[in-house]
Design goal:
75% helix; 4% strand; globular; 102 residues; 5 helices; two-stranded parallel ribbon; mainly alpha
Length: 102
């Protein structure tokens, strides 16, 4: 019982710490990140794809991106490159449109 309790506390501490760490990303930075990912996907550069996907997990996204970013990351984990490319192109288009709206 003590071990389970300790693990639960540790997980709770970790999740709150992670929430504090996630940095908001938008505008040009978001466009740059999505462009890097798209290029890695198209080049089938798996190392760059993985490192970019890993860094994407650290950010908090604008509301309209929150549903699709995890799907892109899931596509990459499952090596569903075609789907990841399509979703990333869509997100990049949205990011650029949002930037023009500023």
């Amino acid at each position: 019982k003590n071990i389970a309790g300790a693990m639960k506390e540790s997980l709770k501490a970790r999740s709150t710490k992670d929430e504090g760490v996630s940095e908001r990303i938008e505008g040009n930075e978001l466009i740059r990140l999505l462009s890097t990912l798209l290029e890695a996907l198209r080049d089938r550069d798996y190392d760059r794809m993985d490192s970019t996907a890993a860094s994407m997990k650290d950010y908090e996204y604008p509301k309209e991106f929150r549903g699709d970013v995890p799907k892109v990351l899931s596509d990459i984990d499952n090596l569903d490159i075609m789907s990841a490319v399509e979703r990333t192109e869509k997100l990049l288009k949205m990011a650029k449109a949002g930037k023009e709206g500023d």
